[in-house]
Design brief:
Elements lengths: L3 E7 L2 E9 L9 H16 L7 H24 L7 E12 L2 E9 L1 H24 L6 H20 L3 H19 L6 H32 L4 H9 L5 H19 L7 H4 L5 H10 L4 H8 L1 H4 L3 H22 L5 H21 L5 H28 L17 H15 L5 H15 L2 H30 L20 H22 L3 H10 L10 H23 L16 H7 L4 H47 L6 H23 L1
Length: about 650
């Protein structure tokens, strides 16, 4: 395979992207996918023979893939900046005239950071799961599903064309379905898995249609061909806007963005390590990856980018408001994920000025949100699977490591100075204001308000869980005996806590990650509408206000063990407890019309199609039965019939002649 050079419009100018042929260590990039895929095959096909050491195989496969990712990253660092995009051809998938699809892997600045995130955080979650799932009889199957999920995500981010990406996209949906319904004996888990699967299918239809538009317009689904056509003006504005909006629909489904966010909180029915794997670092970030990877398409359509920022802004507030109302620790974190992904959508919707910022926040979020979910799992494990924060309180005395690691993740997400969220989220708020005009002020204000509400509900969660008086009993039938998690669980939490502290600074200071992503995402510098220092101070004031409000309400005042009823709270709280009626909206707009349409089609099939067939058969049967009576077998009857016929014929001839 020869090197291929593509020039696309990225950022403020055109950047040459050299897709060099894979050689040396890059020829082994296929191992990134094959290693976890082989682990999944051994664990799922090997059956009970691998029960005793299945967790070791699963963890080793994830760790080996991470090692390969580190080696490839180091090799990329050693190459010239213009030659850091390596395309490896594997085989021809669809060798048909007019529709040639080759399976290949693209290792470049964008895909490699996702590889490190997926395999690095994924390996830590595998290690954590060794302790968390120690007593589960189906632990071997659990690790097999997790390996399958990693392989699917790696195919998604490494594919060098949209069809390969789509294959990984669908496999991610399948493996997430299997993981969410892992405890399938629980009706809620089975229902949540079905809901996630169906709602993701809505988004998947958008991605599939976008790929069809690409092929119909360009004649190819390869990144190089599609992006070159988009940047070269080959695709008309209406068509490229339609493609971008369909890509956005796919991104909203996979990333749990408005209006397809309702599946994500319900997916908390799966084991907690899955919540960390799917909802922190991997699956829900696939939509952000898709938009940034498709930057040359979105750069050509301001209308589509406007829709992206609107969806991001709505989702920020939606996730924040609902997160304030729940008492289930995992659901609060789930809506926090919805809101934080909203920040990423807001950033990438701002175009070249925000692509890299969205990825920065995505990576930082992968550390602190995975740490928060694993910390929540440690608490749930210690409290005998009770997820209601109103039944916690004072746990810091019993779980100091969990308290410290969870606390650092909490400080990172609310934007405490010096921690990762402070650097990444503040830059997004600043860039939103820098957009200028009324829209810039509006988007920046929404992002700023979201920061204050985030500080409120995350402080509420932290205080209700670890501080205040204990609201659980240590005696009787419902006694709890909280204790610190084993080292296999606390070890990954400590590593993620370090990422929560230092990741943001490493990504943002000196524009290190922004410069690294520039060949893919473009230049991100813009004109500052406000002083960055002023915006930082304003964000801190808003954050302190959210923290203070939560501290006054949940630390200085007692917390009731039982949640107040709907009649005792405001209408806003009632609406938030019902997910701002998102499920009601989806049922009214999509589900019930679909049910009515299905019932009408069934009726039409039974009454119309089947009725016509049955009616025709009955008519012919009845007619034949009546005609059969004429066949008596008597000669006199036949003679009379012949005579009658002859008389009719003679009579007709006489009438004609007359």
């Amino acid at each position: 395979m020869s090197a291929d050079t593509l020039t696309v419009a990225a950022g403020t100018g055109a950047h040459p992207l050299h897709y060099a042929a894979a050689s040396g260590v890059f020829s082994l990039s296929w191992l990134l996918i094959v290693l976890p895929l082989a682990g999944a095959a051994v664990l799922l096909i090997g059956g009970r023979r691998t029960d005793k050491f299945g967790h070791v195989i699963g963890t080793a496969a994830a760790a080996a893939s991470f090692v390969v990712g580190v080696v490839l990253f180091a090799a990329l660092l050693g190459r010239d900046g213009d030659n850091r995009a390596i395309s490896q051809h594997l085989y021809s998938w669809i060798p048909v005239n007019g529709f040639q699809v080759d399976v290949g892997l693209l290792v470049d600045q964008l895909s490699i950071v996702f590889v490190l995130l997926i395999t690095g955080v994924g390996t830590l979650i595998h290690i954590y799961s060794i302790g968390y799932m120690a007593h589960d009889p189906a632990r071997r199957k659990f690790f097999g599903y997790m390996n399958l999920f990693l392989a699917s995500m790696l195919l998604l981010v490494l594919g060098n064309n949209f069809l390969s990406l789509y294959a990984g996209w669908e496999l991610v949906g399948l493996s997430s379905y299997l993981l969410i319904k892992f405890w399938e004996d629980r009706p809620a888990a089975a229902t949540a898995a079905n809901k996630a699967f169906y709602m993701n299918r809505v988004g998947d239809v958008g991605l599939a249609l976008a790929i069809m538009f690409m092929f119909a317009t360009v004649g190819s689904t390869g990144f190089a061909d599609v992006f070159g056509a988009a940047a070269g003006g080959v695709i008309g504005y209406g068509t490229i806007t339609a493609i971008a909006l369909l890509l956005l629909l796919g991104a909203c489904g996979k990333s749990g963005q408005f209006p397809l966010q309702a599946w994500l909180p319900d997916a908390m029915e799966g084991p907690t390590p899955i919540s960390a794997l799917i909802h922190a670092a991997t699956m829900v970030t696939a939509g952000v990856y898709l938009i940034v990877r498709s930057a040359p398409i979105f750069n050509e359509t301001q209308a589509a980018r406007t829709v992206v920022v609107i969806i991001g802004a709505i989702t920020i507030l939606l996730g924040c408001v609902i997160g304030c109302a729940y008492d289930d620790i995992k659901k609060v974190l789930a809506y926090s994920t919805v809101s934080q992904i909203g920040y990423m959508f807001l950033a990438v919707g701002l175009g070249p000025a925000g692509y890299a910022l969205g990825i920065m926040h995505l990576l930082a979020h992968g550390f602190f949100k995975a740490g928060l979910f694993l910390g929540a799992g440690s608490v749930i494990h210690a409290m005998d699977d009770d997820q209601d924060m109103r039944h916690y309180g004072g746990l810091w005395r019993y779980m100091p490591v969990t308290w410290a690691t969870f606390g650092l993740g909490y400080l990172a997400i609310i934007g405490f100075p010096g921690l990762s969220g402070f650097f990444t989220k503040d830059r997004i708020i600043e860039t939103a204001f820098d957009k200028g005009g009324t829209s810039g002020y509006l988007l920046g204000s929404i992002a700023l308000l979201g920061a204050g509400i985030t500080a409120f509900y995350m402080t509420r969660l932290f205080l209700m869980t670890f501080h205040g008086t204990k609201r659980w009993s240590s005696e009787g039938a419902e006694a709890h005996h909280p204790h610190e998690a084993p080292v296999s669980m606390t070890g990954p939490m400590i590593v993620l806590a370090f990422g929560s502290v230092f990741a943001g600074g490493l990504f943002v200071l000196g524009h290190s990650l922004q410069d690294w992503l520039e060949p893919v995402a473009g230049e991100g510098e813009g004109v500052h509408t406000f002083s960055p220092l002023v915006l930082t101070l304003l964000t801190l004031v808003v954050t302190i206000g959210g923290f203070g409000a939560a501290y006054l309400r949940y630390q200085l005042r007692p917390v009731a063990v039982q949640a107040p009823t709907d009649s005792e709270v405001t209408l806003v709280t009632v609406a938030a407890r019902h997910d701002l009626f998102a499920n009601t909206f989806n049922e009214t707009v999509a589900m019930r019309p679909g049910q009515f349409l299905t019932r009408f089609l069934v009726w039409l099939d039974l009454v119309g199609v089947d009725g016509l067939v049955r009616g025709s058969a009955a008519g012919i049967g009845g007619l034949s039965g009546r005609m059969r009576r004429l066949q008596t077998g008597f000669v006199r009857s036949y003679a009379l019939s012949m005579l009658g016929g002859a008389v009719l014929v003679v009579g007709a001839l006489l009438l004609v002649r007359g």
